[in-house]
Design a protein that fits this description.
It is a single chain. The protein contains 14 helices and 13 strands. It has 360 residues and is an alpha/beta fold. The protein has two domains: 4-164 and 344-359, Rossmann fold (3-Layer(aba) Sandwich), CATH 3.40.50; 169-339, Glycogen Phosphorylase B (Rossmann fold, 3-Layer(aba) Sandwich). The strands form two sheets. It has a seven-stranded parallel β-sheet with strand order 3-2-1-4-5-6-7, sandwiched between helices. The chain has a six-stranded parallel β-sheet with strand order 10-9-8-11-12-13, sandwiched between helices. It is globular and about 60 Å long.
Length: 360
């Protein structure tokens, strides 16, 4: 009998893309496995998961708004409605195991699964876990983590250090540079800077690039810039400047790059470690416990990346890029050291554990 697996969570690419990587690994190991995603209505997983070839059902869940707003009155009703829908999903799909990857939907889904006797497993991407996974941890069979020292947050006997699952089609960039530059209509002769602020964009990085992009182009560089969907640059199209709200072909973007400027989210770090390119990290200050700075410092201390503070990027972006391009030894050191930190098979390690727990 084929295993049936629910994978629940989302909200950002940092939750969605590892979930898809796990699903892909499960399919490679057991092609007949049945996988159902459960997300939050109106969130980006409802678009990205079907694009990856998987079915998804949405829960009417929403988070509490930090500002005072009447929307928060709806939250208790949304939670109850989501718990009821989660119960129906489990009764209809009859999963052997439910996986939580963080995000709004994983809370009611895994809580209901555990209550109904379904085994549960959590995959935590960050060095500082979100509140949903911390609440779900006591009832989970196992918790797959990417960072050491997570026993501060989770029961030690349940933790498995796996690394973060990254889709193989994203990080397998070897021998793709020429085709990648052709894809973006860029020169084979110029140095290329890839600037990414996460799936939703990063305002400070966007503003800094808008201020400095033309100067960088005049210096002879070319840029691939993912802005996120909520930022519209005033800059006009230029042969050496590719401005995109979202980059679907991330493997080609990574293959094009000589230097990468990025946020320091857990999944961005995991991808960069596998790509092995010199990277400038700009941690977001708007995250719990400033965990992006901790993520970045873990690499900086091993000479595996450079760090520019969020409030300094407007003034230091060109200086840092220029300095790095002019120092080939530093470029090579950063590249070698960050590549040494990559974990290529995290997706398959997690998938094997899911199958083991489901069959136990």
């Amino acid at each position: 009998m084929a295993l049936r697996v629910i994978i629940s969570g989302g909200g950002t690419g940092g939750h969605i893309f590892p979930a898809i990587a796990i699903a892909n690994a499960l399919k490679r190991i057991q092609p007949d496995i049945e996988i159902l995603f459960v997300g939050a209505e109106g969130r980006m997983e409802m678009e990205k998961v079907p694009q990856a070839g998987y079915s998804i059902v949405g829960l009417p869940i929403m988070g509490i708004q930090r500002s005072l707003t009447l929307k928060n009155i709806k939250v208790p009703f949304k939670i109850v409605a989501s718990l009821l829908k989660a119960r129906k999903i489990i009764k209809d799909f009859r999963p052997h195991i439910a996986i939580g990857v963080g995000g709004y939907a994983s809370g009611p889904m895994l809580r209901t699964a555990g209550f109904m006797g379904v085994k549960t497993l959590i995959q935590e991407q960050n060095s500082y876990p979100g509140i949903t996974n911390k609440l779900l941890a006591p009832k989970a069979t196992n918790i797959c983590v990417a960072y050491e020292g997570m026993e501060v947050f989770f029961p030690k006997d349940k933790i498995i250090l796996t690394g973060n699952p990254v889709r193989k089609e994203v990080w397998q960039v070897h021998n793709k540079r020429e085709a990648a530059l052709l894809h973006f209509h860029l020169s084979q002769e110029k140095k290329t800077i890839l600037v990414i602020g996460g799936s939703l964009g990063a305002r400070s990085i966007n503003l800094a690039l808008e201020k400095n992009a033309l100067d960088l182009v005049q210096k002879g560089y070319q840029i691939i810039w993912q802005t996120g969907k909520n930022f519209n640059s005033v800059l006009q199209s230029h042969p050496s400047l590719k401005i995109l709200p979202f980059i679907k072909e991330m493997d080609l973007a990574y293959a094009s790059a000589d230097i990468i400027v990025s946020r320091a989210g857990a999944m961005s770090i995991s991808e960069l470690c596998l790509i092995g390119k010199p990277s400038i990290l700009v941690p977001s200050p708007n995250v719990a416990e400033d965990h992006q700075t901790k993520n970045a410092l873990a690499l900086v201390q091993k000479e595996a990346a450079l760090l520019v503070k969020d409030n300094e990027i407007g003034d230091r972006l060109i200086e840092t890029i220029d300095s790095l391009f002019s120092d080939e030894r530093s470029m090579n050191t950063l590249s070698q050291n960050i590549r040494a930190l990559g974990k290529e098979n995290a997706d398959e390690v997690i998938a094997q554990k899911i199958i083991e727990v489901a069959n136990s």
